[in-house]
């Protein structure tokens, strides 16, 4: 199985233990964490090591795959990945991504997410994707729509950083996919 992906501007690779300090710094920004469901705030370095253990178990079970987003000069800038949206026979995956605040608005999320979707279709036989964003994060909705996702309805998702449930919009790809099929576990922004 291919473990790294190269795009025009990024290298998506497995996380390494040496990523922990930078991961904790980027994900520790409340403005980043509050846009994700699974990022805690504050984000201690121990959370990064717990995340690496979680990812290793997910890869082994073939239920979750996350990539460190790296840029040539800056190194680690965020994360992008997928979680299986149902049991092991399900071919629908939930897509998630986040970027450190200095990298917002540069098109990296679209570039990385599109590459991960292509990887999942080739490596895992994925045939559909779902995703969600909190309504106060319209930039994430732009990313999903740019990739061909279509809104499938409103829902409420819990955010660890916010410590509350907040309104969100669910999306599906391809258009017409059944948004009720995935076992969505509140992975808006995913990856934690």
SSE blueprint:
Blueprint lengths: L4 E2 L4 E3 L6 H8 L2 H4 L11 H17 L2 E8 L3 E10 L7 E8 L8 H17 L3 E7 L3 H9 L3 E10 L4 E10 L19
Parallel strand pairs: 5-6
Antiparallel strand pairs: 1-2, 2-3, 3-4, 4-5, 6-8, 7-8
Helix pairs in contact: 1-3
Describe this structure in words.
Helix content is 29%, strand content 30%. It has 192 residues and is of the alpha+beta class. It has one domain (5-173): 3-Layer(aba) Sandwich (Aminopeptidase). Strands 1-2-3-4-5-6-8-7 form an 8-stranded mixed beta sheet, sandwiched between helices. Helix 1 (20-27) crosses helix 3 (45-61). The longest helix is centred in the N-terminal third of the chain and has 17 residues, at 45-61. The model is unreliable at 180-192 (pLDDT under 50).
Descriptive terms for the model:
192 residues; alpha+beta; 5 helices; globular
Note the beta-strand portion. Answer: 25-35%
* Count of strand segments: 8
Shape: globular
Strand order of the largest sheet: 1-2-3-4-5-6-8-7
Distance between the termini: 23 Å
What percentage of residues falls in helices of 4 or more residues? 25-40%
Low-confidence stretches: 180-192
Task: Please identify the structural class as seen in this structure.
Answer: alpha+beta
Give me the strand/helix succession.
Answer: EEHHHEEEHEHEE
- Average residue pLDDT: 92
Largest beta-sheet characterization: 8 strands, mixed
């Amino acid at each position: 199985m291919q473990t790294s992906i190269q795009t025009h501007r990024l290298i998506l690779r497995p996380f390494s233990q040496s990523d922990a300090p930078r991961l904790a710094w980027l994900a520790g920004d409340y403005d980043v964490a509050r846009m994700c469901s699974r990022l805690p705030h504050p984000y201690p370095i121990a959370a990064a090591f717990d995340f690496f253990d979680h990812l290793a178990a997910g890869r082994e079970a073939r239920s979750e795959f996350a990539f460190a987003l790296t840029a040539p000069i800056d190194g680690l800038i965020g994360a992008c990945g997928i979680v299986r949206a149902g049991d092991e026979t399900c071919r629908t995956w939930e897509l998630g991504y986040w970027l450190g605040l200095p990298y917002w608005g540069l098109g990296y999320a679209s570039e990385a997410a599109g590459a991960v979707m292509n990887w999942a279709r080739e490596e895992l036989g994925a045939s559909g994707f779902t995703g969600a964003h909190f309504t106060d994060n319209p930039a994430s909705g732009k990313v999903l729509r740019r990739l061909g996702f279509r809104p499938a309805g409103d829902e409420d998702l819990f955010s660890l950083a916010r410590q509350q449930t907040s309104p969100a919009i669910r999306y599906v790809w391809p258009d017409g996919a059944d948004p009720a099929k995935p076992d969505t576990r509140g992975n808006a922004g995913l990856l934690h």
